[in-house]
Specification:
The protein is α+β, with helices and mostly antiparallel strands. Among the domains are: 274-384, no CATH class; 476-582, Immunoglobulin-like (Sandwich), CATH 2.60.40.10. Helix content is 57%, strand content 10%. It contains 19 helices and seven strands. The protein has helices at residues 2-25, 28-50, 63-71, 76-80, 89-102, 107-130, 136-150, 156-159, 165-182, 187-202, 210-221, 232-250, 264-267, 269-281, 290-313, 318-345, 359-381, 388-430, 450-463, and strands at residues 490-497, 502-509, 520-526, 532-538, 544-550, 559-567, 572-582. The strands form two sheets. The chain has a four-stranded antiparallel beta sheet with strand order 4-3-6-7.
Length: 587
């Protein structure tokens, strides 16, 4: 009797648990939507808060567009011209159009990047509806997981670097075409729209060529609505379009001189494999060690091909093929892109595969695996029930994915803020490029060819596209803020003599009411009229600053050395507490 009562109690407890659990599942869609909007909102906040309005790195190559546009000399050939490995004609059109309307405020390019990410997210939502299996809460749970990757701060280089529109346009085109494949519009219009988007993808980034290859299987296998694409005229038209796009892309193409050999993967196959797997695994970075990331990449690629093998074994199941083909091709897009990156970048070293900007290309393998896994589990469940143990394993995997993304979020956010600081400090050094050689800066807006940078930044300044403009004087009283001396920016703490003409200055400088370092610290010497002349600066990302300098060129005795904090957003200087006197030895 006791055993029966105990068994009945367990059943009642399980029933009550299931009732509560089922009640909770009703709220999953609302929770998922809220978290998706929150993750997207955080990225928009990061862009608005940490985006720096100054060209950075490769963006300096586009100064010629605006200079020639101003002079009426901008040509199609210039916009179509190869840049590194890319023919980014369509991103160039966006840069020029936005630049013309906004005086080339590069933060608007970051907004475009965010809009493209939202478009991709919406396309994933539409594809999830077209390939929906299971209950509503399951679909929204998968969409939440997918958007944790799409709106991850781990892509911080791309969120805060406007030129990376070229990284988002291809996947926006690919995902849009996949959505079009499932719509009910006329087949001829489907062909026209998708060939147009494939062309835009192609001439945005070199991996945009993949659009032609991953799309047609989606049309071919996505169901009876696309019978048109199984006919020879359609296959021939798509093939001709692909060949023409490739031929036009590589007409006059040349390998960039600064880039490594493309055959290194054949010479070092093991390193090539590591680079390939690290590029894929970095999307799901659990621990920031390359060995672990490589293993994660290996597990992801193994799971992908295991699922593909399962689907091939059930090739006669047309519904399974229809549901899964779009996700197979989306995953293949990331896999083939990772292979292209490996071929083109292996010579830079395996650690270069962990660059945050590449995750924009490769995160869609993780997104595809989320939906493919759900489709396969549902298909398997139709044949035999899934055990409690199997359900527990699935729940643990989902919990692990959420935990990993939440756990790595603060780390990625810190890296994003660090990237912002690098550009902000580099901008501070740039403001004095006509007085202080850019090569002396710790953080640089462009790492090489400083003479060319100086020429370009002065062109940009004359166009009125640099905010604030370049400093036109090295007399610091002329750019001193009215609040200077009233607001505590820090102090000049120590001057250490190394020899008769070499000294080390050090101190600390912070932006008031924050723990952030000043954008730069300027060092000056006073002339006999009390004017403070800038002679060097330090723009390291540190509250504690230090600079070694020489007095050889200072033809005055004694020398009064002062330090100033500089704000790159206003172009104003603020005096730091303390100054030192150097008495030159008599000859």
């Amino acid at each position: 009797m006791k055993i029966i009562t105990f068994d009945f109690s367990i059943k009642i407890s399980i029933l009550l648990y299931q009732m509560n659990f089922n009640k909770f599942l009703k709220y999953v869609p609302a929770i998922a939507i809220s978290l998706i909007l929150l993750s997207a909102g955080f990225i928009l906040y990061y862009i608005l808060r940490y985006g720096v309005d100054v060209p950075y790195m490769d963006q300096w190559e586009y100064i010629g567009f605006f200079d020639h546009l101003k002079k009426g000399m901008l040509t199609f050939e210039e916009l179509f011209r190869q840049h590194n490995e890319y023919r980014q004609f369509f991103p160039n059109l966006i840069y020029v159009s936005l630049g013309w309307f906004t005086d080339w405020n590069v933060r608007y390019e970051m907004i475009v990047i965010f809009i493209l990410a939202c478009l991709v997210s919406f396309n994933i939502y539409r594809l999830a509806n077209f390939t929906a299996i299971g209950e509503s809460w399951q679909k929204w749970l998968m969409l939440l997981l997918a958007n944790l990757f799409i709106f991850s701060p781990m892509q911080y280089e791309n969120w805060l670097f406007g030129v990376q529109i070229e990284y988002f346009l291809p996947i926006a085109c690919v995902s849009s075409c996949m959505v079009i494949a499932f719509t009910r519009i006329n087949a001829y219009w489907k062909m026209i729209f998708c060939m147009t988007l494939a062309t835009i993808s192609t001439f945005s980034s070199i991996n945009g060529l993949l659009c032609w290859f991953v799309l047609f299987p989606v049309f071919y296998f996505s169901g009876t609505k696309n019978e048109f694409f199984r006919k020879w005229p359609s296959i021939s038209a798509w093939t001709i379009g692909t060949i023409l796009a490739i031929a036009l892309y590589f007409n006059g193409y040349h390998k960039p001189e600064a880039h490594p050999s493309l055959i290194l993967a054949l010479v070092h196959p093991l390193d090539a494999l590591k680079y390939f797997l690290a590029t894929l695994g970095n999307t799901l970075r659990i621990i920031h060690t390359v060995q672990v990331i490589i293993v994660v990449g290996g597990l992801m690629i193994l799971l992908y091909f295991t699922i593909v093998f399962y689907i091939v074994r059930h090739i006669k199941d047309k519904e399974l093929i229809r549901l899964s083909i779009v996700w197979i091709m989306l995953g293949l897009y990331s896999i083939l892109t990772a292979a292209m990156l490996m071929i083109g970048r292996l010579g830079f070293g395996i650690f270069q595969s962990l660059a945050s900007r590449y995750t924009t290309f490769t995160l869609f393998l993780a997104v595809a695996l989320i939906f493919l896994s759900a489709i396969i589990i549902h298909h398997y469940q139709q044949k035999r029930p899934i055990s409690v143990l199997q359900k527990s394993c699935i729940a643990l995997v989902i919990a692990f994915l959420i935990f990993t993304k939440v756990n790595t979020y603060p780390v990625a956010a810190r890296e994003l803020k660090g990237f912002h600081a690098t550009i902000q400090h580099a901008k501070a050094g740039l403001m004095f490029i006509n007085f202080i050689p850019h090569s002396e800066c710790v953080n640089k807006i462009y790492p090489s060819n400083f003479d060319e940078l100086k020429r370009k930044v002065n062109i940009l300044d004359k166009l009125g596209y640099l905010r604030p403009p370049l400093e036109t004087t090295n007399v610091l009283q002329d750019i001193e803020a009215k609040e200077s001396g009233k607001i505590d920016y820090g102090s000049f703490d120590r001057l250490t003599k190394i020899n008769d003409s070499v000294y080390t200055a050090s101190g600390h400088a912070t932006i008031p009411n924050t723990n952030n370092p000043a954008d730069a610290v300027l060092l000056s010497f006073d002339n006999d009229k009390g004017k403070s002349y800038l002679f060097t600066l330090v723009n390291a990302d540190s509250v504690h600053w230090e600079k070694v300098f020489t007095t050889v060129s200072m033809h005055i005795n004694p020398i009064i050395i002062k330090a100033w904090a500089f704000d790159a957003n206003t172009g104003k200087a603020y005096s730091l507490r303390g100054s030192y006197i150097i008495n030159k030895p008599k000859p």
